[in-house]
Give the backbone structure.
Amino acid sequence: MTNTPKGWDMGFRDRVRTLFTSGKQAETALDDPSLTVVAASFDHAEAASAALARASAWRPTEPVVLRHYLTLPQDRLAEAAGLIAQDGYELRENTPEDGGFARVFALRAQVLDALRCAQERSRMASLAQRLGGEATGWDAMQTGERETDNIGAPAQVSREGRRA
């Protein structure tokens, strides 16, 4: 029997993620039909903070599905899928291209901020370059449903004390 503290049997990344997310994981399904694009950038020179700042529909406290657009050699897709799966991403093929390349998406549900977005964009650009491809951009999708505080607008009350 070992004297390993409770909870130390999970992976290092899981422990760190739990520390910074209070154990709350994003629960948005990657295939949710109500997902709509709320932020995007396909300009390598644009900062993630600038893209998110101009995204009027983005709700920062709610989870997003972050989708990276990658062009990768077809013979390296399995390797790419294995590498990104370690960080909770799913690789989906979009369209094959001429010359042995494929356009693919890397998707993951998470709560997004400018720092995380910039880090993930950099990670995907690095991965694509190592595999002989290119990261062309990203977008963030959220469901059409908004969180509420269950407090609606105050009802109009008449002088008699009845709601109007």
The two ends are 69 Å apart (CA to CA).
